[in-house]
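Take a look at the protein record below and tell me what you see:
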Amino acid sequence: MDPRLSDAIREEFARLVPGTPPPASKTIVIGGHRAAGKTRLLPLVSSLTGRPGMDLDVELENRSGRALRDWVVTDTDGFRRAERDLFLSLPAGGLVAVGGGFLSHHPEALRDCHILLVPITFETYRERLLKDTRRPRLSPGVSLEEELSAIYQQRELLHARVPTVGIAAFLRAFADPENP
């Protein structure tokens, strides 16, 4: 989670009344920007929901035998097809953390899912990606600073088109109404 947002999330959580968790037949997708904390959040959401979780990127690497970093750089279209195909092959009702570009590249694949959006500020996104040299460059023709800014802004607009649930609302859906 983005530490810059923790106070705002706590405040939002405090204002929400307990809700209804998503039906067991709906896949829960943890999505958001690169470096937002989706993979780190996966075991917590799995524990909360009682659903086994899958990191789609890890599963893609395991099934293909290809390192995502190299795959994205050498065959972006093939990678995007593979991630979409794998996601669509999964049985409904699971819990899946998807890669940073999934929401923006495959919104149609998420139509029948409950999408938990992990928020991140641009400042935290930038700091994390400048430190993380394992992640592939997405726009090597421009400076890293320009790439980060452009990708963040583009994906913010695309994420806004996908119906998502904020993390506080999602957690509140699992809150005990007897013990708010």
Remarks:
- DSSP finds nine helices and five strands in the chain.
- The chain has a mean pLDDT of 89.
